[in-house]
């Protein structure tokens, strides 16, 4: 499984993709909505709006109206996004025996999740690669394949290739979102996928994973994901603003984003200062 949990000091964000699932909520591979349940996510609820910041990655959407679906753990639960918008039923397994005889990118995605949960990382990596590449691939398959490459989950670690797949997933989700909006299709699942892809691309820039380290660019991506309502991105953006990492130090705005993240379940231990009147 991915690296064991690390205890973060107060105010230090815990980065997704580096922690084990909590024992109280084991992931279930039966649904595409549990794709990310083997990682640590906070519930998604509500959103927050701040003025645009120069240099922020420009995506063709208004990032303040999405509402992600929640699985049984309260985890952010994106569904796979095909190359073109389809009916929700197309995200399901292609047949009852799909996990033993996979045929579609979604089948391979679900099989990869099942292998990952069972700690068969090499098998899961092969399935994620197939999900990312078969018939133009699916967005969540690209995300999972990118994360597998970045962290070396069952495949030789290759951060540069991982970054390319994460970025491709984000770009594909933007395209799918615009197509879905034009066709009056429910876009909530696509937005859920998009926010995670944006967050992970931001992590790559902020940490120098597969791309030249650029904390300023990483913070810009965190800001986009934070506006979309992602609590981990809100926490990371707040941390950067509090300490001036990749941006100008601004404790008042940091407090705003910390409060937004706390509202969604992020711990506020060590953050009593964010409630002081001068930071309101």
UniProtKB/TrEMBL annotation:
Residues 1-105 are annotated as: Disordered. Signal peptide: none annotated. InterPro entries: Mitotic_Regulator, Sel1-like, TPR-like_helical_dom_sf. Residues 59-74 have a biased composition (Polar residues). Residues 1-12 have a biased composition (Pro residues). Pfam families: Sel1. One of its GO terms (cellular component) is cell division site. It comes from the Eukaryota. Residues 31-44 have a biased composition (Low complexity). GO terms for biological process: negative regulation of G2/M transition of mitotic cell cycle. This is HCP-like protein.
């Amino acid at each position: 499984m991915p690296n064991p949990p690390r205890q973060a000091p107060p105010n230090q964000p815990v980065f997704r993709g580096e922690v084990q699932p909590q024992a109280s909520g084991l992931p279930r591979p039966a649904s595409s909505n549990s794709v990310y349940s083997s990682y640590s996510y906070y519930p998604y609820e509500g959103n927050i709006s701040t003025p645009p910041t120069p240099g922020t990655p420009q995506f063709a959407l208004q990032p303040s109206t999405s509402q992600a679906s929640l699985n049984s753990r309260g985890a952010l639960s994106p569904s796979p996004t095909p190359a073109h918008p389809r009916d929700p039923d197309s995200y399901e397994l292609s047949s009852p025996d799909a996990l033993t005889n996979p045929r579609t990118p979604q089948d391979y995605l679900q099989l990869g999740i099942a292998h990952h949960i069972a700690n068969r990382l090499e098998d899961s990596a092969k399935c994620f690669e197939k999900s990312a590449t078969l018939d133009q691939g699916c967005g969540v398959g690209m995300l999972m394949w990118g994360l597998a490459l970045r962290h070396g989950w069952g495949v030789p670690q290759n951060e540069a290739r991982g970054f390319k797949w994460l970025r491709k997933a984000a770009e594909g989700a933007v395209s799918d979102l615009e197509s879905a909006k034009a066709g009056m299709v429910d876009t909530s699942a696509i937005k859920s996928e998009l926010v995670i892809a944006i967050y992970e691309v931001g992590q790559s820039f902020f940490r120098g994973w597969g791309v030249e380290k650029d904390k300023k660019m990483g913070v810009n991506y965190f800001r986009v994901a934070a506006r979309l309502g992602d609590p981990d991105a809100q926490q990371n953006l707040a941390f950067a603003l509090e300490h001036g990492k990749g941006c100008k130090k601004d404790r008042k705005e940091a407090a705003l984003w910390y409060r937004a993240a706390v509202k969604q379940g992020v711990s506020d231990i060590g953050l009593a200062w964010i409630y002081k009147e001068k930071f309101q």
